[in-house]
């Protein structure tokens, strides 16, 4: 199973990050620079990521070392002014053209660039921070704090009652779209507890027998989607309108038809399924195939 934003062919090369001399040696005429428009990828007419050289870098910008492609260093630029614009419809269209490996390369770069753009100052003392370890750390010279890129854990879950799935929609979803319920893991929670809390908060349903299925990096801005399955004995819903616009139980036949429609470039009759680069799509496909 190929999960979007995972499986990058670039070697992260941690040993290079640790060595300023090795990093400097890689910043030569053969180094590759991933071209970005803010946080969005620059996609070629052939539907591929576009790469330049370090000649294209603003001298005031920081560089993040993405890793090695063969013996060539791969980098991405942190714009001096920063850019934390949210994902937009044009971005989703561009992502649909990229291969799985290129999605993974872009996803890691986007998360790192966004983190640097939002962490120019120390969270402990407020002083400016500087880039370190090829961009995989920021240091504060004032209070000596070390800051590292963070990944936020998010549970995303299918809830099953008999042979039906509970799916919901948020107001920002395109009309007719439904997906798996999801929510951030809070401090002091296990994954299982987060699944149960989120399902009850959003839909008023008690979940049991939570089990892990799969995970996905999600670079908007930097989450780890933890895909789970859980079960409900009582299908009665109490929807939190602050969290969801709607939530419904869908039959296996309805889920199957919606997924087939999405695979064929269409839209389902009962609802429209998540796109193929979303882990919710893979969770639903997994659920159908396991029968």
Tell me what you see in this structure.
This protein is α+β, with helices and mostly antiparallel strands and 291 residues long. The chain has helices at 14-17, 20-26, 89-95, 100-118, 191-203, 252-263, 279-290, and strands at residues 32-34, 36-37, 40-41, 51-52, 62-69, 72-78, 129-132, 137-140, 146-147, 152-161, 164-169, 181-184, 208-218, 223-231, 246-251. The longest helix is centred in the middle third of the chain and has 19 residues, at 100-118. The mean pLDDT is 94.
Key traits:
single chain; 291 residues; alpha+beta; Nucleoside Triphosphate Pyrophosphohydrolase; 2 domains; six-stranded mixed sheet; four-stranded mixed sheet; 7 helices; 27% strand
What topology emerges from the helices and strands here?
Elements (H helix, E strand, L loop, with lengths): L13 H4 L2 H7 L5 E3 L1 E2 L2 E2 L9 E2 L9 E8 L2 E7 L10 H7 L4 H19 L10 E4 L4 E4 L5 E2 L4 E10 L2 E6 L11 E4 L6 H13 L4 E11 L4 E9 L14 E6 H12 L15 H12 L1
Parallel strand pairs: 1-6, 10-14
Antiparallel strand pairs: 1-4, 2-3, 5-6, 7-8, 8-9, 10-11, 10-12, 11-15, 13-14
* Poorly predicted runs: none
Beta-strand content bin = 25-35%
Oligomeric state of shown chains: single chain
Task: Specify the helix fraction band.
Answer: 25-40%
Radius of gyration from the CA trace? 21 Å
Structural class: alpha+beta
Main sheet properties: 6 strands, mixed
Number of domains: 2
Instruction: Supply the CATH class of the largest domain.
Output: Alpha Beta
| Averaged pLDDT | 94
Q: Between the first and last Cα atoms, what is the distance in angstroms? A: 17 Å
Find the CATH superfamily of the largest domain: Nucleoside Triphosphate Pyrophosphohydrolase
